[in-house]
Amino acid sequence: MSAALRSARPLRVGTARRYLMCPPRYFTVSYMINPWMDPTQPVDVAQAMAQWTVLVGTYRALGHTVEVMDPEPGLPDMVFAANAGTVIDGVVLGARFRHAERAAEAAHYQRWFRAHGAPGMVMPSAVNEGAGDLVWTGSLLLAGTGFRTEAAAHAEAQELFGVPVISLQLVDPYYYHLDTCLLVLDDSPHDGLIAYYPAAFSPGSRRVLARLFPDAVIAGRTDAACLGLNGVSDGRSVVLPREAVELGRALAVRGFEPVFVDVSELRRAGGGPKCCTLELRA
Ligand code: ARG
């Protein structure tokens, strides 16, 4: 990298985070609720556990706190803790799943939150798949709809959190949750920066994103297709699927530090690092 480019790179400062995660002990692909899932293909639970364990260790090595909740037999997608709810400023909005296969997860997450300092947790009345579709930028709550979370859930979230909600229409079934195609890199209230894959959004939503985030990192098809946008940033280090090499390069140019992990086994269910991670914002 040239000296000029290096000096132009903004100095990024990471902040310590607190995450909720759930081990994939009962992970399998026994049903198909997104196009990544193929129940005819065998899943290696030991491999999924190993990849998840490395992810936990990666966060801890970066200085983050990881809370681990117990998985439940018969709920193979519980590893995707991002769907447990949405937490902003200590206020917790629970989940209500679109598909019967995941419906029972909501009560387990609710029990965990009630036992871990969130007695006032609110349960949604509309379909709401938590931080999978409700993505906090530091000043705006970006809210996906089209496949899972209902638009009515966006209004419920706005009312509970008292933050501006921006509804975004998802149009590609491979990018069924907002966090599969949009990644918050910097969540400081005034300098919010995101990366996203435009083709996953309706034309109007693309225009909204372009208007709100003119500096955004625009990801290409290859990075999107490995769920590369399903990353987790602390403001400096960005944990990404190891295949997302182009995106990693683009982030490095912007002063971020890409940290690559192997999530190949979890991707069989349509998930990546971010899906496995719910940020608990105090
Ligand atoms: N198999 C899960 C589902 O389709 C994957 C969830 C991924 N979670 C996420 N936050 N994108 O519901």
User: Biggest sheet: strands side by side, in what order?
Assistant: 2-1-14
The CATH architecture can be given as 5-stranded Propeller
Tell me the domain tally.
1
Uncertain ranges? none
Spatial gap, N to C terminus: 38 Å
| Rounded radius of gyration (Å) | 17 Å
The set of bound ligands, ions and cofactors reads: arginine
**Shape category:** globular
Main sheet summary: 3 strands, mixed
Annotated CATH topology: L-arginine/glycine Amidinotransferase, Chain A
Query: What is the name of the CATH class?
Result: Alpha Beta
Counted by DSSP, the helix tally is 8
- Structural class, by secondary structure, is alpha/beta
> CATH homologous superfamily, by name?
L-arginine/glycine Amidinotransferase, Chain A
Oligomer: single chain
% residues in beta strands: 15-25%
Round the mean pLDDT to the nearest integer and report it.
96
Draw up the topology in text:
Elements: H1 3-8, E1 18-21, H2 45-61, E2 65-68, E3 86-88, E4 91-93, H3 100-103, H4 105-115, E5 134-136, E6 141-145, H5 151-161, E7 165-169, E8 182-186, E9 193-196, H6 203-212, E10 217-218, H7 221-225, E11 232-233, E12 237-241, H8 245-253, E13 257-261, E14 278-279
Parallel strand pairs: 1-2, 6-7, 9-10, 12-13
Antiparallel strand pairs: 1-14, 3-4, 5-6, 8-9, 11-12
Bound molecules: arginine.
